[in-house]
Amino acid sequence: MKIGVIGTGSWGTALAQVLCDNNQNVLIWGRSKDEVNKINIDHQLSILGDVDLNPNLKATNNFSDIVDSDVVLIATPSQAIDEVCNQINEHFNKKIIIINVAKGFHVETSERLSTTIRRLIKPEILINVVSLIGPTHAEEVVIRLETAITAVCEDLSIAEEIQHLFSNDYFRVYTSADEIGAEIGAAVKNVIALASGILAGLGLGDNARAALITRGLAEIRRLGVAMGGNDQTFFGLTGVGDLIVTATSHHSRNFQAGIIIGKNDSAQYFWETNKKTVEGVRAVKVVKKLAEKYNVSMPISNEVYNVLYDNELPSEAINKLMNRRLKSEDVNE
User: Which CATH architecture has domain 2-176?
Assistant: First the structure.
């Protein structure tokens, strides 16, 4: 089986190495000649520092080199999904499985990304879409630290095929058919991670962050269930697992962005200086729309939106959350 990876970012490269370690025929495509040369010649990736990659891992700038792939892994930011799908439609003429590892929503349609891919890819070339979701950081996977993740697909037989493709002694893959729950967890956790970073930046302690993560999970679960997700999904790797690592780790771009916002008690400096892809910044717009559409209470997510887009001070947002009407924890609001 031949696998093409679209994107020479850290996560796509780390997953490509997993496949290479499993003796799979894998090739990474990227636009940057410098990054492609770095992988092919130095067996390293700039963004990952001095980490040595599997010497058998190869990359290319020529998109036509991956068009005979049986599986295509899309490892680009969520806003690039449309462009990537158009490229696939233009160049591929065989049936493929698509693996998506971007986490977020389609900004214009508010779709889950698996829905977007199924809508955009020509049905005559698409077998199915699998999402790889779970508590993972490329920085750990690339040095082969033990990791568990979930292959999510509406067709469990396809998820199991991808499970066996990736699994080895340091990378364990589970399966799930709950695309709604898993993708909502993957997208909304980035918003909660922003909030967690804001608390850290403001200097609040472990008590506050533990409470925020717990109540953030409640928000994710409420929205996911309202949209048709399985309640139990939110207590697994694609739910609480992904949330914990993203809302606590310094590898997390969302957490790091939140720290900057909290330290300045304002989002202004972040907007003026940020040059990284921070998925939660885009996702919170969609979360706000979905919460309103499904009549779901999401106070933490709402305050993150207010801080980012309504010039609310993070310290004021915290004060509002702490002084909400007192209630039972069992109440869904």
Answer: 3-Layer(aba) Sandwich (3.40)
Asked if residues 308 and 283 have their Cβ atoms less than 8 Å apart, the reply is: no
Q: Which residues pair with 26 in a beta bridge?
A: 3
pLDDT in tens, 58-111: 999 999 999 999 999 999 988 899 999 999 999 999 999 999 999 889 988 999
CA distance 89 to 191: 32
Instruction: Say whether domain 183-322 belongs to CATH 1.10.1040.10.
Output: yes
Q: How confident is the model at residue 235 (pLDDT cuts 50, 70, 90)?
A: very high
Q: What residues form DSSP beta bridges with 98?
A: 72, 129
List of residues 6+ apart from 90 with CB closer than 8 A: none
Which of 220, 229, 183 lies closest to 296 in space, CA to CA? 220
Q: Look at residues 68, 59, 66, 70 and name the one whose alpha carbon lies nearest to residue 84.
A: 66
| Boundaries of every domain in the chain | 2-176, 183-322
Catalytic residue positions, numbered: 189
Report residue 39's pLDDT band, with 50, 70 and 90 as the boundaries.
very high
